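Same chain as my last thread, 496 residues:
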Amino acid sequence: MKYILAIDQGTTGSRAIIYDRRARKIASAYEEFPQYFPKPGWVEHDPDQIWQSVNNSIQKVLKKIPGSKIEAIGVTNQRETTVLWDRKTGKPVYKAIVWQCRRTAKRCDQLKSIKGETEFFRRRTGLPIDAYFSATKIEWILKNVKGAMEKARSGRLLFGTTDTWVLWKLTGGKVHATDYTNASRTMLFNIEKLEWDKEILRKFKIPEAILPEVKKSSGIFGKTVATGKLPAGIQISGIAGDQQAALFGQACFEPGTIKNTYGTGCFVLLNTGRKRPFSKYGLITTLGCGVKGEPVYVLEGAIFIAGAAIHWIRDGLKLLSCGCESEKMAVSVKDNQGVYFVPALTGLGAPYWDQNARGAIFGITRGTNGNHIVRAALEAMCYQTKDVLMAMKKDSGLNIKDLKVDGGASANNFLCQFQADILRINVVRPKVIETTSLGAAYLAGLAAGYWKNTREIKKCWEKDSIFKPEMRNAEAMNLYKGWLDAVDRTLSVSPR
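reply #2:
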């Protein structure tokens, strides 16, 4: 039997997962890599360590399944994170600037202060002006790294989000490409014309020659070179940004279908099909994957900090030793005791888009303990999701009846139940919660003929649990009001 290998290059580590025709996970391997915080608000990765983590996870998983059994490879990745490297030496000119990094916030504020700029970027790219996206990160490297601009102008420098970097390494430097979903996260890509926007490139003084070729998410990108147990000649036939891959992995193929991924951040995506929505309520319009990997429009609410808040409580406050302890700690107290945690550790994303907001914990008393703070961090994921869904309802006019969930934190039953209680709708969790990698596998498998069509894929999706609202409506509303009050006190701008 042949299998599909999915590479999930995430914010804190890389995973290699092998799937069979029934979308069952046959084997997996994971490797973390270091996070670098050189200044407050700055977040970096080492691109070579990213690749090392990808390669090591591949080698580990191929010890369980021979490389000759791999039909095709799909890649999914942390989006927006920016890598620039020398095409001749293959060496990065600077560390990867991570999507969470806020170093270009002042530059973004400068752009937003120019009349008409915010609307200009929204119309062309579907995105707000924010340090979250790749454009100002590229600009910063070109301006601040000695010799980078000269190399870029001479055609020696290459840019990519981490999918492009991994693809380049897998193909031995032969392929410099990305897909529509990742291109749409750069703040350089025109989502109407489906091409790099020359006027925007001029604004940032970014030479077009450094940009990768853009292809549909399901199709042949290139073939592997032999690396350890990975044989040469395996086709890399699927690429998508992690959240669009998760939407595809959740079988959200039709307009109106929606999912939320609970990972480092939270990302709510609503498939709107070929109709491009224009958000009035702080959401992003981006590109997703159609049934054949072609670009379709998606409405997205990006929440910067979700699981990362638990990581901070673990590493910064030392209140728990493992994220897996969070559920037990949350249910050990009967309620939040009035404690609210607004996790604006890197600013606030949708629907607020306040890059200068900073995290805060409210309602602390002598009776507050670590369990209350952990519970407040989990509850914050649910409140932020409600913020986004309310905006989506207003923008789309759709009546959202249930929410498909995935990602590591969705295994937390307390989180899922509280989410259903706060949203007042059903929360549906699939048997496979690693839908990000599964989406990449599906995209690769469709191009390789491993699966004939999305109808076959739909048959693979299986439900694990449905969480129905149990809390009284008045209590849910009161809790959410407390959250909104906490957010208002956190914002750097005037409250709503």
